[in-house]
């Protein structure tokens, strides 16, 4: 298997474009725009990534995770998850404590559907989440799946928590996001041309329950 998984993205993307959304992994420019804002004195954060893929965004997120934080990544394609573990040099377990550089941080990767996030979090004894970072392609995903994912996001995020997701800029905005996330406000939008396809990174904050 290629170390960075370029070939697998093309193959899996062509095979199932409605789930994968593209034929190349997310660029580092988009990944950097999606990282959670965690400051040194903050209480422990819970950060979830939906649609880990081969780990291009994961790699950036975990640079910002401290030993006291929790990171759980969820991916529905087992082949991608395998490449992700290889890319991040993680052993082949769903839960690992990884010594990344000189930092002993917890990186947990789960094979599963983002719709089942509540069930997955229960397994890890997590009830509330500070940040959800998501590159699942909502515009091409079946509407029912998008709705289920967004309902879960709404439930598990803390008030004040952030949902950071992408929109391919050539795709029209979907009303289902503001309709379901009606207790959220948009706090940031950033267009990144250096991605295939060009992408907008949108950050929404949950205002209330
Ligand atoms: C656009 S790709 C980006 C992946 C990742 N950021 C990368 O660059 O490798 C979207 C990812 O979402 C995953 N995905 C799609 N639907 C999903 C779902 N319902 N639950 C979990 N992952 C899903 C796909 O398998 C794919 O890996």
From TrEMBL:
Domain Methyltransferase, which positions? 47-161
Q: Which CDD domains match?
A: AdoMet_MTases (cd02440)
Q: Which Gene3D superfamilies match?
A: Vaccinia Virus protein VP39 (3.40.50.150)
Q: Domain of life of the organism in this record?
A: Bacteria
Q: What is this protein called?
A: Methyltransferase domain-containing protein
């Amino acid at each position: 298997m290629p170390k960075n998984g370029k070939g697998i993205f093309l193959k899996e993307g062509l095979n199932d474009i409605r789930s994968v959304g593209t034929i190349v992994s997310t660029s580092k420019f988009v990944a950097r725009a999606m990282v959670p804002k965690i400051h040194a004195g903050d209480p422990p954060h819970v950060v979830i990534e939906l649609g880990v893929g081969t780990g291009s965004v994961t790699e950036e997120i975990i640079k910002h995770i401290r030993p006291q934080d929790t990171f759980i990544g969820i991916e529905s394609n087992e082949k991608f998850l395998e490449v992700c573990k290889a890319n991040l040099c993680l052993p082949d377990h769903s839960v690992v404590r990884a010594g990344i550089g000189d930092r002993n941080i917890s990186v947990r990767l789960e094979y599963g559907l983002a719709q089942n996030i509540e069930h997955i979090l229960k397994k890890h004894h997590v009830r509330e989440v500070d940040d959800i970072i998501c590159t699942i392609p909502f515009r091409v995903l079946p509407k029912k799946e998008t709705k289920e994912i967004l309902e879960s996001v709404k439930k598990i995020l803390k008030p004040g928590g952030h949902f950071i997701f992408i929109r391919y800029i050539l795709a029209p905005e979907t009303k289902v996001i503001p309709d379901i996330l009606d207790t959220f406000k948009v706090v940031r939008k950033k267009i990144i041309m250096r991605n295939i396809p060009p992408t907008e990174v949108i950050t929404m904050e949950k205002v209330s329950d």
